[in-house]
Design goal:
This protein is of the alpha+beta class. It is built from 8 helices and 9 strands. The strands form 3 sheets. The chain has a 3-stranded antiparallel beta sheet with strand order 1-2-3. A 3-stranded antiparallel beta sheet has the order 4-6-5. The radius of gyration is 48 Å and the shape is elongated. Residues 15-122 form the KilA-N domain.
Amino acid sequence: MTQVETATVIQNNEQFVNASYNGMTILVRQSDGYINVSQFCYQYSKQFRSLIKQDRWKDHIKAEIDERQPERNLLGLLMYSIDKGYANDFKGYYVHPILINYIAIWISPKYAVTVRKIMDSINENSQQTHTNFEANTSRLNEQLQRENTDYSNTIQQMVPRLVPQDKQFDYIYSVELINEDIDGSGINQSHHQGYVKSKRLYDPTGNNFITSIEPLQGADQSYSINIRVAIYSMKFSAI
């Protein structure tokens, strides 16, 4: 709450300023900025001495002291009195500027209403800001969830396309050993070798399943008979 200077008065080589505090006239001691609350209360037919006797005033002073510097007793710095050496208009209690709002509410119901309106407006704006923030946060979360779902669906739709249709084949080189006992004198081994083509089903999880194996045209037909043996020995890499 600002103060608007209106006039400067010299008293005992010291400057005092008649100023306006939110439409209320106050006398400010220029050297320290303290305000003559005795004169301030007198304008509204109030006695400042009556206020300082109240427990609520004492509680307010204590709260201000605790807020500023809890380790020091600032009561002497928050308020003092001038009772001699000056004209009557300059005598009385002087208080720190942080106390003037509390005193103004006490002496002027109109001022109290003004302060209430200001605080209500601040509170309303704060609540509206909080409400808007929560609404925007909720909206953004929902939007992100939708986008994540869309991306997941798009990826799932794209996965099968990574293996073109009718291209899911592996070519496997297989060697079949055939043991033959010739005239009872020993075991001779012969083998057949060639390529077979296996067809597999692509699974998006990364697993590959063989659905059928068939010999290539021109390959040794013995593979069709021993196909089960070939399945156990084959190896293939994912496309």
